[in-house]
Protein: NAD-dependent succinate-semialdehyde dehydrogenase
Organism: Vibrio zhugei
Amino acid sequence: MNNIKNTSLLRATCSANDDAIAILNPANGDVLTHIPLISVSDIHKYIERSVLAQKQWQSTTAAERSVILQRWYELMLENSDDLARIMTLEQGKPLAEAKGEVMYGASFVQWFAEEGKRTYGDTIPSPSSSKRLATIKQPVGVAAAITPWNFPIAMITRKAAPALAAGCSFIVKPANQTPLSAYATAELAYQAGLPRDLLIVINHHSSVVIGDVLCEHPDIKKLSFTGSTGVGSQLLKQCASTLKRTSMELGGNAPFIVFDDANIDDAVKGAIASKFRNAGQTCVCANRFYIHDAIYDTFVEKFTQAVSELRIGNGLEPGVSIGPLIDERAKHDVLSYIDNAVSQGATIHYGGDSLDGLFVTPTVLTQVSQEMDIVQTELFGPIAPLIRFYDDEELLTHANDTIYGLASYFYTQSIHRALQIAEKLEFGMVGINEGLISNEVAPFGGVKHSGFGREGAKQGIDEYMNIKYLCFGGY
């Protein structure tokens, strides 16, 4: 089996100095290593190399590209334990969750290894007997991405795999908190046979500086970003100067709805999975809970019991289900959300404690109303605000009362209600009696201020391709 040791991941590390980023373990504050920074001039050189590599890569067949991607997928599986451990060390999520993310990230590589061979064009019936019409799909060119720290492998493979399968080259800026996962994943791609200039990982202490380069460089034809709505909006403005293709997966404020006819035990199980995965630090996690009055007390009791059984600690320890928050700022924000909600009338029904380090106990808030600030905030932490509702129309008004439109969830046993509510929720994704909805075969993305574009599924590769129309005359 190939091993990640003695690879570019380790070669990239260095001693502490002004030109390096210290990578910390959020569970205990230990310095794992230092990653050397690259200069802006070096970034431009990488882009030049990426342009040349892409022209050669585009000339290969989809089948040839598929072989390399399939091997990359196999190497990710073979090295899944190492990848998961790296992720837990630098990001903090429990080891079982990290292993799950590795498998999730690898699934996109496998999917697009095959999907790249299905980028079909069309033969179009011509309005003229003297012409024949058709379309073909071609890669956009050099693609770039800026990815977040909460899913440091999956957010890269979900973008890089379709780009490479389409015939693009790919440059990625991972979050400064979690670059090791990016280096390790890229190293396996190189071991699979991918030329290094086709998948380039870049680091800089300033995300703003890298954003400026990637958005405004004319040779980069596509930018994909996952992160906050505010940053996404700024990147879009910068991309306008070069009329760059973009896809944006931005903020979320997911409602989790439990109707009076729901299976409460199933709803509790789904709520725990949706809310507390990655300590609540996901864009699609349940953000506000709407519970029908008829079953509110029962749900609160069962949900609180389930929350109390979650074990907090270092993600490398067996049985841990809640790891640390990513940094001090994240912890400060979570505690501020709780304090603010209490000041507006909410009650801490369970948890709400600040523990040593970057840990906060999972928190259940009751007596929450729609008018409170916490209902309109993307929490990114282990907080579950529970809101009582009385009828479906009121529920829909409140659930859709947000600028965001990424994920939503509801539980009911009525097929009529399921169809009606699913159609009326203003979100790009809807989980019906299910708290975990992401996978490689379905399109991932949002509406409203949650962005645009889709990742995964057959739509994901189209984000990296141009449609060219061919008109044959002289018949």
Q: What stands out?
A: The radius of gyration is 23 Å. Residues 95-115 form the longest helix (21 residues).
